[in-house]
Predict the structure.
Amino acid sequence: MRYFKSVTDIGDLNEAVREAMQVKKNRFAYKELGRDKTLLMIFFNSSLRTRLSTQKAAMNLGMNVIVLDVNQGAWKLETERGVVMDGDKPEHLLEAIPVMGCYCDVIGVRSFARFESKRDDYEEKIFNQFVKYSGRPVFAMETATVHPLQSFADLITIEEYKTKPRPKVVLTWAPHPKALPQAVPNSFAQWMLATDYDFVITHPHGYELSQEFTAGATIEYDQDKALAGADFVYAKNWSAFEDPNYGKVLTTDRNWTITAEKMALTNDARFMHCLPVRRNMIVSDDVIESPRSIVIPEAANREISAQVVLKRILEDLQ
Ligand code: CP
């Protein structure tokens, strides 16, 4: 594997899950694979889980790890060509990327949507420049439009906790005070649609996601109807995708918060969220603390999804 961004980059999902379970049983079995190899993790945004789980996965594989927070301690980076650089950004990404490539063997990139231009966000300008100019394998640690390491971990978690071959999985929008990217729901939809699960998305009108990721999904605007019989409830906020509201918060209606009453509509569903989560906006305290909540094992599986991806990249580097 040279690049990892889409569900199609991982190949057969059953095989990927089998490999994940094998890695989970003995996560130090491939410690020689990463010997004398260096992972550079570049963060344009804050992170807790991605940072720790990916570093841990790399260490399990015997890699050296360098972490760069672009906005803290590095030169501020200009990302656009043609800009007269007389402002506060003394370095251009087009020099910075190949220089970063000189110091490592593999690069992970975290770059959120900026919401300045839907076209720029959905063209993945930052991630694609790393692919084009670094000369190294590059994987997404959440980009402007996708979060595949999260979705792979979500899939592993559902496979571990499902009690029937074809569970009903519901992705529900939930309220949040600030505009959040569509990356997590985009990827989650893409990965769930690649399985044979019964997959339903529910959200208020105006929060339709890109067809690029959701084509073929069942959309139900009535959250209560969507939750009926659900085996897994995956809550997430996202901002509007459709123009002219791209990147805007259209409502913070707390009738969409996942509460015990909402969970009572389900088939005793497991509750999932990628974290970080705003309690009593997205989900009530009692639901996230209940025995049906699997947010912690879900986060723990981030180490496993990252390790499978890094393992495959390293295998192709040998
Ligand atoms: N879920 C997730 O990616 O968490 P962080 O933003 O903390 O990395």
